[in-house]
Amino acid sequence: MRWFCERSRSQAKWLDCSHFRLRPLVVPRLARHQNKISAPRPVRSCLALAWIFIPRQRAGFGKQLQIAEYLVKVLITGADGFIGSHLTEALVKNGHDVRAFVLYNSFNSWGWLDHAPKSVRKNLDVFAGDIRDPNGVRTAMKDCDAVLHLAALIAIPYSYHSPDTYIDTNVKGTLNVLQAARDLGVKRVIHTSTSEVYGTARFVPITEEHPLQGQSPYSASKIGADQLAYSFFASAVSSSKCNG
How deeply is 10 buried, as exposed, middle or buried, from its count of CB atoms within 10 A (0-12, 13-18, 19+)? Predict the structure, then answer.
């Protein structure tokens, strides 16, 4: 199994010379207000740039990798959010089998997916649950080849008076995803983060060498989630080296 941590690019460069090489995660530019999806580009701004590990034998050198190139059955957590809904829509339009994990609610709302075209919604496998529940996460992940983990509780002000909710969702929720993927033998996990893990910039432009600063419960919870994802990746690499 190959593990991936969005913030681990610099930490894992040594892999580039052996079994893996790095490629940027590419998704369509978000342009719902224009009722269209424009040309693909690497994700930046509210999402930190994500990177994905691709085996050398399957990744042609000099070839631009699209995110869905090797994925078949994909689980997207946080599919009801702004970014998650656009990613879901793009993969469905590219002909991929997508299971959208949305937060259960009594209104039967799919969040931003409610506004997706009917052609997209009718081809979706929607799973309503809660990322904080490990049983639901495991059920949603069955028969999936890859997981794109975007589910998270955001908003800094709210995290100050309800920090437990952020730990349960962002840290424990991520752990639920990682453990389920490991136990079910999922081929690839992509974990997304936020620039808030760096806090107030000590220098610009911010690089991956910038110190982590948990300046709010929200940013601290995302740092914890990132480190969990990296720990699973590092453990898998160490295990494979020992077994090899």
Answer: exposed
Q: Which of 158, 166, 198, 218 is catalytic?
A: 218
pLDDT at 69: 52
Alpha-carbon distance of 234 to 68, in angstroms, equals 24
What is the full DSSP assignment across 77-146? ETTTSHHHHHHHHHHHHTT-EEEEEEE--TT---GGGGGS-HHHHTT-EEEEE-TT-HHHHHHHHTT-SE
pLDDT 10s digits, 115-163? 999 999 999 999 999 999 999 999 999 999 999 999 999 999 999 999 9
**Residue with tokens 């079994």, as numbered in its chain:** 19
Query: What's the CA gap between 195 and 154, in Å, rounded?
Result: 12
CA angle 107, 113, 117 (to 5 degrees): 125
Q: How far apart are CA 27 and CA 30, in angstroms?
A: 9
49/31 Cα distance (integer angstroms)? 18
- Neighbour-count burial of 125, counting CB atoms closer than 10 A to its CB (0-12 exposed, 13-18 middle, 19+ buried): middle
Assess whether 218 carries a catalytic annotation: yes
- Over residues 207-238, the pLDDT tens digits come to 989 999 999 999 999 999 999 999 999 987 76
The pLDDT of residue 44 is above 80: no
What is the assigned CATH class of domain 10-196+204-243?
Answer: alpha beta
Taking the model in full, what pTM does it have? 0.72
